[in-house]
Amino acid sequence: xxxxxxxxxxxxxxxxxxxxxxxxxxxxxxxxxxxxxxxxxxxxxxxxxxxxxxxxxxxxxxxxxxxxxxxxxxxxxxxxxxxxxxxxxxxxxxxxxxxxxxxxxxxxxxxxxxxxxxxxxxxxxxxxxxxxxxxxxxxxxxxxxxxxxxxxxxxxxxxxxxxxxxxxxxxxxxxxxxxxxxxxxxxxxxxxxxxxxxxxxxxxxxxxxxxxxxxxxxxxxxxxxxxxxxxxxxxxxxxxxxxxxxxxxxxxxxxxxxxxxxxxxxxxxxxxxxxxxxxxxxxxxxxxxxxxxxxxxxxxxxxxxxxxxxxxxxxxxxxxxxxxxxxxxxxxxxxxxxxxxxxxxxxxxxxxxxxxx
Length: 357
Ligand SMILES: Nc1ncnc2c1ncn2[C@@H]1O[C@H](COP(=O)(O)OP(=O)(O)O)[C@@H](O)[C@H]1O
Ligand SMILES: C[C@@](O)(CCOP(=O)(O)O)CC(=O)O
Hints:
Elements (H helix, E strand, L loop, with lengths): L2 E13 L9 E18 L3 E6 L4 E6 H10 L4 H12 L4 H18 L7 E8 L9 H17 L9 H16 L5 H8 L2 E5 L3 E5 L6 E6 L6 H14 L1 H23 L6 H16 L5 H12 L3 E5 L6 E6 L7 H12 L3 E6 L6 E4 L1
Bound molecules: adenosine-5'-diphosphate (ADP) and (3R)-3-hydroxy-3-methyl-5-(phosphonooxy)pentanoic acid.
The site of (3R)-3-hydroxy-3-methyl-5-(phosphonooxy)pentanoic acid (PMV) has 16 residues, from helix 6 and helix 7.
């Protein structure tokens, strides 16, 4: 019987968040924190779904899922009706997650039936709603799991394009109007230059680049922040077009600096500071982020938000010899004292992977 373990990385946007929504380039990287899905066919009559990170699980008869696959027209509205009628859950996050799950299932299977029931669980190292790509890592994991289940894709010949495209459908349910940057990086991994509708190219950094991820603990909605920026853009189109163009120029400068990185972070730190200022200008900072910027600067580090902002995660760029340095130890203890959790990681890392159990 089919039994797979799928793993997809989280991501950080190094530069280009928000401007990427307006067609500008972004520089994005996979990180070491991952989402892990397990899917196992069973002889049961019911499909069992477990989302421990969201603290909910449920069962649904296989026959109901197959009725849905045969009868649904596959529109988001139709999948929403199915989820509402079937599960009658009042929690918006749970509903949305289930809509994404069944929408992706329908896209993967079309009108074909699922031949056997299965147990599916999704666990993650990522904080959900923090800007480190948990929704995309979730989308990539379910897309991969379901494509394997259909037999359209084999574990030793993963079709990254098909996975990323299907994960984008999950992102469309969760984020309404995503740029596609998150599903791309969480599928391919590494370091990428990405532009909405234009595709991506892989980049390499000559030397390991260390990053500290700082969790503000403040949840925020990407969709709301994107629409807040859209309102400002509508009010001041020329001003905002120019800010987005500045962010684009910054990304081009950053690509040069990261591609030539020889261990000296001085210029990258300057770009962090400038990018942070531009993001504050478009209104996506937050008091918790400002506090992190202050503590970082006090200890001679440069930081910026990553992702949509409004809380979520900040990133601090670290020099190669940061370990055991007094200012780094002070940075960590001051951030922790202020209530912010920190995780050390490196830029890059593998994309989606599958293990047949
Ligand atoms: N491990 C997971 N299990 C189930 N759903 C998940 C998981 N990770 C993410 N999600 C889905 O993604 C949503 C979070 O998306 P979002 O707010 O954009 O967070 P992030 O910025 O971390 O991607 C959750 O509400 C849920 O629908
Ligand atoms: C703000 C934005 O540029 C990045 C959002 O990233 P996240 O949801 O915070 O991981 C939106 C997008 O690219 O769709």
